[in-house]
């Protein structure tokens, strides 16, 4: 199964993609995490994308598509994966379709995690992320048991530099201008399903698992 998780920055794509991929036994491909790892390691790719990320702008399609194409060719993606943060432009969505078509696969569903704009700003400021396992926390709504330490793996928590208020505003602007049209792309293909992202983390995950079931076995 190949799934795309869509939603604005702060909608909970990373959290849900990690949970869904674990529950369904699928690989998790997070373009933002791959870029951040490259920046931290100081690779050539990292050096070329850092300025875009610092500004809250999108990395050029060509670079992003190449990165995802390489990741998708790794053995853990053979039977499927959950895409998180990709595609973010129509160009990327089309390129992803091509990559999958060439291996006789296709996106099964695009899940849109819907969260009102005012809630997104609140969520992004105050977010802390585990350096080791990428689990996110929030200082008000879901703080770790021990400050700056991950409950799950004990890793160190850090705040993303692009979660600063001005950069968050830019990321949201970029999202509405460039990524929101991707929703229509999947809607036209009859693959888009929306879930209420304002629910608790477990409830959103359950709603996603539920909408992925065939209509005949869905709850409610
Ligand atoms: P994220 O962790 O998904 O919020 O991504 C962090 C940053 O990485 C974004 O603000 C972009 O600069 C870059 N990025 C991640 N995914 C993509 C993508 N699919 N296309 C272009 N840039 C991306």
Verbal overview:
- This protein has helices at residues 13-24, 31-41, 44-55, 61-72, 90-101, 117-124, 165-188, 201-212, and strands spanning 2-6, 27-30, 81-84, 109-114, 127-130, 136-138, 157-158, 192-196.
- The protein is of the alpha/beta class and 220 residues long.
- Helix 1 crosses helix 8 (201-212) and helix 2 (31-41) crosses helix 3.
- 34% of the residues are buried.
- Bound molecules: adenosine monophosphate.
- Residues 9, 31-32, 35, 52-53, 56-59, 64, 85-86, 88, 92, 162, 171 line the site of adenosine monophosphate.
The CATH top-level class label: Alpha Beta
Spans with pLDDT under 50 lasting ≥5 residues?
none
The general outline is: globular
**What structural category characterises the helix and strand content?**
alpha/beta
CATH superfamily: P-loop containing nucleotide triphosphate hydrolases
Instruction: Catalogue the ligands.
Output: adenosine monophosphate
- Portion of residues in beta strands equals 15-25%
Rounded radius of gyration (Å): 17 Å
Enumerate how many helices there are, as a single number: 8
Whole-number total of structural domains:
1
Q: Using DSSP, what is the number of strands?
A: 8
Largest beta-sheet characterization: 5 strands, parallel
Q: Please estimate the helix content.
A: 40-55%
Top keywords for this entry?
220 residues, globular, Rossmann fold, binds adenosine monophosphate, alpha/beta, 3-stranded antiparallel sheet, single chain, 8 helices, 47% helix
Short précis:
This protein has helices at 13-24, 31-41, 44-55, 61-72, 90-101, 117-124, 165-188, 201-212, and strands at residues 2-6, 27-30, 81-84, 109-114, 127-130, 136-138, 157-158, 192-196. The protein is of the alpha/beta class and 220 residues long. It has one domain (2-115, 165-209): 3-Layer(aba) Sandwich (Rossmann fold).
């Amino acid at each position: 199964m190949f799934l795309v998780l869509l939603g604005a920055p702060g909608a909970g794509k990373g959290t849900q993609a990690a949970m869904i991929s674990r529950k369904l036994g699928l690989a998790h491909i997070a373009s933002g995490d791959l870029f951040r790892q490259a920046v931290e390691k100081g690779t050539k790719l990292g050096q070329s994308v850092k300025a875009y990320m610092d500004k809250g702008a999108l990395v050029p399609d060509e670079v992003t598509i190449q990165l995802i194409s390489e990741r998708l060719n790794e053995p853990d993606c053979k039977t499927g994966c959950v895409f998180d943060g990709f595609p973010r432009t129509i160009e990327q969505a089309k390129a992803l379709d091509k990559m999958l078509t060439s291996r006789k696969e296709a996106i099964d569903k695009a899940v849109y995690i819907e969260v009102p704009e005012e809630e997104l700003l609140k969520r992004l400021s105050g977010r802390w992320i585990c350096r080791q396992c990428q689990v996110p926390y929030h200082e008000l709504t879901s703080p770790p048991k021990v400050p700056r330490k991950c409950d799950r793996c004990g890793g160190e928590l850090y705040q993303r530099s692009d979660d600063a208020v001005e950069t968050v505003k830019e990321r949201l602007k970029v999202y509405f201008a460039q990524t929101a049209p991707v929703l229509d792309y999947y809607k036209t293909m009859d693959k888009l399903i929306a879930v209420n992202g304002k629910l608790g983390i477990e409830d959103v995950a359950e709603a996603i698992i539920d909408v992925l079931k065939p209509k005949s076995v869905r709850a409610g």
